[in-house]
Amino acid sequence: MEEVAVESVALDRLAAVLPPDRQARLAANAERARAGFGTRTVWHVNATAHGGGVAEMLQTLLAYGRGAGIENRWLVLEADPEFFTITKRLHNMLHGEPGDGGTLAGAERGHYEAVLAANLAELVRRVAPGDIVVLHDPQTAGLARGLRQLGALVVWRCHVGRDQPNGLTSVGWGFLRPYLAHAHTMVFSRRVYAPSWVDDTRMVVIPPSIDPFAAKNAPLEAHQIAAVLTRVGLVAAPSPREPVRFTRRDGTVGVVRPYAETGGLLHHTEPPRLLTPLVVQVSRWDRLKDMTGVMTGFARAVGGGDDGGAHLMLAGPEVAGVSDDPEGALVLAECQDLWRSLPPPVKARVHLASIPMDDGAENALIVNALQRHAEVVVQKSLVEGFGLTVTEAMWKGRAVVASKVGGIQDQITDGRDGLLVNDAHDLAEFGDVLKRALRDQELRRRLGSAASARVLDEYLGDRHLGQYVDLFLGLVRDSGR
């Protein structure tokens, strides 16, 4: 297993953006944790250190936990491609989708258990009885029994789900149920995601959160945004003469690499000009994010020529950089094939970008600049566990157009702090909602202002950390140790 280095970040940094009552509550929760956890270590185990909202949240929450004096540690599974093919299939089924159409039968269960048994052997050398272990998502569920037998307090944290269960979700949950029986408690982002056999006494609901000071969310001035995007070749403008620097979590200084000099990060197209209105979706190359649907809906929406000359940019991770998602390259290829079929006038206004993953801070800075540069940020997911890309864009004061699915509908009140597409599969509705946003600058300004305030109220890390403290203290109390 790989242990991910986590820096210590003082809670004062987060407290600086909070109102006084929340500052006081944050400090009180830190004190409760220090007094109640004793010498216990809080371990988090997931499938990847890079790519996706889980890894980003862990980096942030664990850093603040360490800043509060709590011993937090983060381990990543060691697994082979077959394991990730199986767990991606499981991930899709929990969303009610068939994925690659494969099964979750005896062979798949046997391989899943064999890989996790090897990881468990290393875990038992690290974890002490009484430690708290948070297992994240389906990839880790099979570790629960061995950790509980060791005497650890085991939490399984599920970041995915579907609003309305179907036959496929039943298959997925049936695969996981024998393992989850050994967790002390389970955490879901929404109550409706929990299967019917999970008793309310064994579960809690904790929505995700963002860190306003992370590289992906930190404030950027207009000239910084332009410098980053031109340096990497995502927009066309004179390249800055001076290097574009950024600071990583460990304090080291990095320099944004001049990708524009080697062709940029776009596939096939010339970058849009700096002043061109831009519609952006940032997500994994995942069929459930419906990048092809965004492209098709945008192509239909701009046919009338009343969109202000907007361009669309679909930005995802460099596919080799996300180890736990074997479908990424296939979905990117599907998007490229669809792009080639577009009429030439539309094709020139649609851009596919792959953002490098080898330097997490640089990746986050590029995404930050791209979202802040966008006139409209889109998240047209077919299903969505929560949608942290929506939270991030809202925090930046962007007008967001998103599907009314999963946790997105918890974050956005339609017409107040974003615009919702009622039917995620209805491309005509998506196009109409997108045109409405592009045509009305005052609407975009009003939605963006309300969106930023909504995130400040509900989706920053102080709330998330407080809920974790309550959960962990309850486990410690119930264990009697």
Task: Describe the structure in your own words.
By secondary structure, the chain is α/β, with parallel strands linked by helices. It folds into two domains: 2-209 and 460-479, Glycogen Phosphorylase B (Rossmann fold, 3-Layer(aba) Sandwich); 222-458, Rossmann fold (3-Layer(aba) Sandwich), CATH 3.40.50. Helices cover 44% and strands 14% of the residues. The strands form three sheets. Strands 1-3-2-4-5-6-7 form a seven-stranded mixed β-sheet, with helices on both faces. α2 runs parallel beside α17, α9 (291-301) runs parallel beside α10 (328-341) and α9 (291-301) crosses α15. The mean pLDDT is 94.
Could you outline the blueprint of secondary structure elements for this entry?
Elements (H helix, E strand, L loop, with lengths): L1 E3 L6 H5 L4 H18 L4 E5 L6 H15 L4 E5 L4 H14 L11 H21 L5 E5 L7 H7 L2 E6 L8 H14 L4 E4 L14 E3 L16 H11 L12 E3 L5 E3 L10 E2 L10 E5 L8 H11 L9 E7 L10 H14 L2 H4 L2 E6 L4 H14 L2 E4 L8 H8 L3 E5 L4 H4 L7 E3 L5 H13 L1 H18 L2 H19 L2
Parallel strand pairs: 2-3, 2-4, 4-5, 5-6, 6-7, 11-12, 11-14, 12-13, 14-15, 15-16
Antiparallel strand pairs: 1-3, 8-9, 10-13
